[in-house]
Amino acid sequence: MKVAVIGASISGLYASLKLAKAGLKVAVLERGEGPDIERKLIVTPLFLSHFDLKPPRILYRVRAYRFIAGDIEALIPLKEPDLVIERRELVRYLLLASRDSGARYLAEWTFLGWTGNGSARFMTPEGEEEFEADWYLASDGARSAVRKSLGEDLRLVYLKQAKVKLPRGYEDGVSTIWFRPHITPYFFWLFQDSEAGGVLGVIAPDKKGAEEGLRELLIQEGLQPESYEEGWVSLFDPRFRPRQGRVMFLGDAAGHVKVTTVGGTVTGIRGAEACVKALLRGRDYLRELTPLRRELLIHHWLRGILNRFDTEDYRKLLRVMEGCGFLGEICRDDLLWALPLFPLKAPLTFLRLIFMGAPWGLTRNRRQVNH
After folding, report:
1. Is there a single domain that holds both residue 208 and residue 167?
2. Are 292 and 271 in contact (CB under 8 A)?
3. Of all helices (H) and strands (E), which one includes residue 216?
4. How crowded is residue 301: how many other Cβ atoms within 10 Å of its Cβ?
5. Is the domain of 221 the same as that of 318?
6. End position of a domain, from candidates 190, 219, 234
7. CATH number, domain containing residue 246
8. Which of 181, 204, 160 is nearest to 367 (CA)?
9. CA angle 115–119–123, rounded 5-degree value
10. What pLDDT is stored for residue 363 in this prediction?
11. Low-confidence ranges of the chain (pLDDT < 50)
12. For the residues of 182-207, what is the DSSP string, one character each?
């Protein structure tokens, strides 16, 4: 079986590594020259369970989150710390491991479209070429050219973050999350990536909103940007078809992203694992994706609620969250397990959330953002 992985993303390279180790003929076709996107990421501890080789370098560990809405704060210590990693290092790590396992890597191959017989067309350094494979794994990012070639699209949001020196007295291992729904329905953050340095960032519905929001927070916090990292992120849509003919979509190209936190590293890897199982065992890709899609549907439902929140709603939510130890035990990549245990592990907090009306979005009518 011959597999073409279009796009050297984390999910695509993870799939190529697993498939090459299983003995399949795998080629990774990347439009760039190599790993070039630098971005600090926060991942849950579940991330490490997906690596049977030496895990990538951990830059720092997040031991607690401080949430802020207006004048209200809530500190949530984590049972297991989250991990700060560098995206470019992870991509390079997976690329080398894939090549060592037998996968071919073709740089500067830009996807153009499809031929009449279903082969993929690319522009290469030698000119236009066709590439025939039994399966095509589209892992070419949030603005996937493969997805667009098949007439599909996903909603995008913009991420922008700045490398900064941490303010004096910053509490080690504590990441700060600001909710400012009058600026963005998502959130701002500040997390450490070294003892003295950190990353201040924002997710917004568009690039302009992210740039203006980040600029405003930098001024308010008195921080100077040393460099920027930015890019588009796709959002999960339950209506999107992850397989079309001989094409399977992975990672951001498939919208395998938690729309609550707009994080997609672990979910992208889980989607890649489902793809690998489908190919190696001759199973249906959508069926293999069922556990992941259930997880992403929970985040989709929660995001629909959060998009109706204003600052006062977040203030109420933080009052409920404060002091709830069970929240620190919940893994964001495993809500399917955690939510049924909520009324047993934290009954008081659960009841307060019900009376608040948050679980069903029974808040007052306000500005909404459609997803």
Report:
1. yes
2. yes
3. helix 207-221
4. 15
5. no
6. 234
7. 3.50.50.60
8. 181
9. 75
10. 43
11. 358-371
12. TT-SS-EEEEESSSSEEEEEEEESSH
